[in-house]
Amino acid sequence: MAEHRYDASPGTALITGGDRGIGYALSRRLAADGWQLLWVGRTPAHLEDGNRRLMTEAGCEARVLACDLSEADAAVRVHDWACGLGAELDLLVNNAGFGAFGLLTELPLERDLAMLRLNNATVHRLTRLFLDGMQRRGRGTIVNIASVAGLIPMPGFAAYSGTKAFVHHYTRCLDLELRATGSPVRAISVCPAAVRETGFQHEAGMQDTSIFRDSLATTPDVVARDIHRALRSGRRIVVSGRAMRWVLPLAELLPRWLQDRYLLARYRRELSAATGNRD
User: Fold this and answer.
1) How far apart are CA 11 and CA 218, in angstroms?
2) How many CB atoms lie within 10 A of CB 191?
3) Could you give the dihedral angle defined by the CA atoms of residues 27, 208, 277 and 150, in that order, rounded to the nearest 10 degrees?
4) Which parts of the chain have pLDDT scores under 70?
5) Residue 176: CB partners within 8 Å, gap ≥ 6?
6) DSSP SS3 for 115
7) Using only C-alpha atoms, what is the Rg of the chain?
8) What is the pTM of this model?
9) What order do you get walking across the sheet with 91-94 strand by strand?
């Protein structure tokens, strides 16, 4: 069946977590191309600050909805809001998410469950709700932000790593299904290395770890650039971070026992730092 090339002409993009980090950096690039932006974020003040920055840097504003996307009915509220604006999405970017670093048995269960709802359930519901319209119009792309943590098991990140493994495989399977049925809609899985200069490190309790300081880490601008290129080129998997793109294939060649030895040694140090040197 013939492949469809992505239509990169500007349209309407909805970005969860568009006011900060990767979402904001991508918004700035899309705004420069003439896209209309819809943002969904949890904190009204952050949405307002992000819009002020966007007006200064790109000369436009996003239409915004303050909504806690970890709540069970959040996706339906977002869909109803977008439909109420008369918006027909050409691009959905499921970017919002959070993590919690530490021993699984010591992290609050309710926080982990909220993470599962935001990182997985809301991603799935938003995808299903907006995909039908894209299919009818014969145009659209869904970008889901996974993580390298979804490709490599990371002790101390058990629940988060699991949620990102879901996002990556879910997106890959969705894209294959769309291709198999000849749909012009595509799905892109984005797997960044650790991303500096966002609120993620603090929210995950990782201020004292070295993960965001080492040479494998990347920045929101680099991730946004890689997504922007993928939208234009038709790529379906994006591993963001130049160093990580080299290291990941090499790591996959190592025997499992050697991978495990490295991961245990690395994350024992990181867990010790994150938990105040408690064993």
Assistant:
1) 28
2) 26
3) 30
4) 1-8, 201-202, 204-213, 215, 273-279
5) none
6) helix
7) 19
8) 0.90
9) 63-66, 36-41, 12-16, 91-94, 141-145, 186-192, 237-240
Q: Is there a contact between 145 and 22 (Cβ–Cβ < 8 Å)?
A: yes
Q: Work out the angle between the directed axes of helices 44-58 and 21-33 (0-180°, nearest 10).
A: 40
Q: What span, in angstroms and rounded, lies between the C-alpha atoms of 146 and 166? A: 8
Please tell me the distance from the alpha carbon of residue 18 to that of residue 40, in angstroms, as a whole number.
7
pLDDT per residue as tens digits for the range 125-175:
999 999 999 999 999 999 999 999 899 888 888 999 999 999 999 999 999
DSSP 148: G
Q: What is the DSSP letter of 150?
A: G
pLDDT tens digit sequence for 251-273: 888 898 888 888 888 787 777 76
Residue with token string 């010790």: 272
CB atoms within 10 A of CB 155: 16
Question: In one letter, which amino acid is 56?
Answer: T
Q: For tokens 């069946």, name the residue.
A: 1
Q: Return all residues near 231 (Cβ < 8 A) that are at least 6 apart.
A: 6, 8, 91, 141, 143, 188
Site of tokens 């349209």: 11
CA 68/CA 83 separation, integer angstroms? 19
